Amino acid sequence: MRFYCFHLMPWAYLPEDFAQRYDSAWVTCPNSLYDAELGHPLYNRYLDELELADQLGFEGVCVNEHHQNAYGNMPSPNIMAACLARRTQHAKLAILGNVLPLYDHPQRVAEELAMLDVITKGRVISGMVVGTGMEYFSYNINPSYARERFHEAHDLIVKAWTTDGPFAWEGKHYRFRYINLWPKPYQKPHPPIWIPGSGSPETMEWVAQQRYTYMVLPTLAPFELRRQSAAYFRQCCEKAGYSARHEQIGWGIGIYVAESDAQARREYEPHFWYYARNLLKTPAPLSLPPGHTSLPTTISMAERRQRSRPGGLSTWEEVEKGGYVVVGSPETVRQRLEEYAKRVGFGLLVANFSVGNVPSELTRRSMTLFAQEVMPKLRHVNADAPLGDAASH
Amino acid sequence: MTYQDQIISVRGRQVRLLRGGKGQPLLYFHDAWSYMWQPIHDHLAARYDVVFPIHPGFEGSTGFEEMDRMEDLVFHYLDVLEALHLEQPILMGVSLGGWLAAEFAVRSSAMLRALILVDALGIRVPGVPATDLFRLDAAQMRAAIFADPSSALAHELVPDSPPQGSIEAMLKARQSFARFAWQFPDNPKLASYLYRVKCPTLVVWGEADGVVPVSHGQAYQMKISDAALAVVSHCGHLPQVESPEPLAATVLNYLEHLADGS
Questions:
Q1: What is the pLDDT of residues A152-176, one digit of tens each?
Q2: Does A392 have pLDDT greater than 50?
Q3: B172 contact residues in A (CB cutoff 8 A)
Q4: pTM to 2 decimals?
Q5: How far is Cα B173 from Cα B56, in angstroms, rounded to an integer?
Q6: Which terminus of chain A has a smaller tally of CB atoms within 10 A, N or C?
């Protein structure tokens, strides 16, 4: 197994009564609640945590894109990756991902990732996402075109990375006479592409066909639903004529490690509820705008949402039983993750240590315990054979 | 009243067509919530040949993939009119359908006998933005659309959770609606072209419209040269649903006087 350290960079200072006073942490959440005096140390603390992940031997660090919200303060993930590019030594920079349909110039995404890839000598992983429904409100992008724009932007970016220019692009949503990337990416043919997802079948089918890595997002959902997603992705790969490698499946999950189970829960639980009750607070119309997902998926997601949304969770027992997060002593965390890994078959663990408003010293201790006491014992689990064999036929 | 429910083919698109009554043709453009034959159509069909096509993307009609702008819908309906050999129809539209009727009329009002705009979306009125319908939940949506959000009709058209049999139709309606009406349900340039509407026009508005307030109706009336405005009291965004009798009386009366006068 390989280990990535994920960050949401949440706003940690929402008022105590936020959930009672406001109906959303997104789009309309008043930015009078944002305070740059607090934001300055918060950003730098979060970046320090990702730098620590590099020092602790995580294979990569992950940033992501969300707009106009308290849930994750990275409207430009590429800026965060740029901050990390020269302050990390070994870690891959996984940008999970750029929300492609939001942009009228996808070549900007291609350019920025190529810049980062060259600067870091090929440490960039490019995540590409359709994005949450909320982003379509924030950027006034018609969600009935979300899928079309995603696919066309993806095709344009990959072609810009892999084809010598200048060439013309004439699609439905994008038309450019001159695509001619300076710089081109360091990695050949292009940076690895990961597609984070929350269970849309059409996304999984496409990812399998492209042979990209599918990452089951850490957004709070019970283990069983997420296991089903991974299982469906595996089926899609079989249907596309090959078996998924472990490393083609990423597993996002909230993790917290302390000396004992009781201590871990005591330290973590209040911050978990800050996350679940405040940061995830989204009215359904904002998260499911029309056309953002296909009709069958919209129907099934509406049902899933009702069944799985943490707004419905009220006790820690439910959280534990549903496998929403993995919290405990190093041994408990190792056992749980090993069990999950064996049941799901994932080879990439994408761990989020910074849920809600966990204080920095606790986050750093949890990450350190994980890296020193859990990681070494899980490396052998779901390790793939070297690619050479598979690639030779 | 009996009406036909049939599928016709127009340039490879399947168009579901509801049609009832005899007389001059009255082409009816529906909104995003009530895309079925209702009492209002019975009232109108008592005097007119009511031709009620379902828009592309709504249940029963195809061709949504080719519809990117209101103009595509206008061309679609020019084709439909031609296929049906409708001569000098009265064109009536509600909400989204009213916007479409106005877009149609600025391009080709010469082929219309009259234009009837009911709580039409479509124009931008400074200082009075249309409600962003897509961020509303069912209860908020009922409050925006209906003068009486607690009525059985309101709950039927905008249910808290759609009955199994109509989930897909409702999602399709919502998606097709969003294609044209996402965030700003208007064409910022439409108002400046309304001078091109040269046929007699009746603008009807629900007094309690919480989507596009009466000031939008007044703006339509002011920009169209031969336009009258009638306001329906105790009525929201969908008068054909909430006040079918007063709406029918207003429309039929207007059309009758038009017939007398010409």
A1: 999 999 999 999 999 999 999 999 9
A2: no
A3: 295
A4: 0.95
A5: 10
A6: C
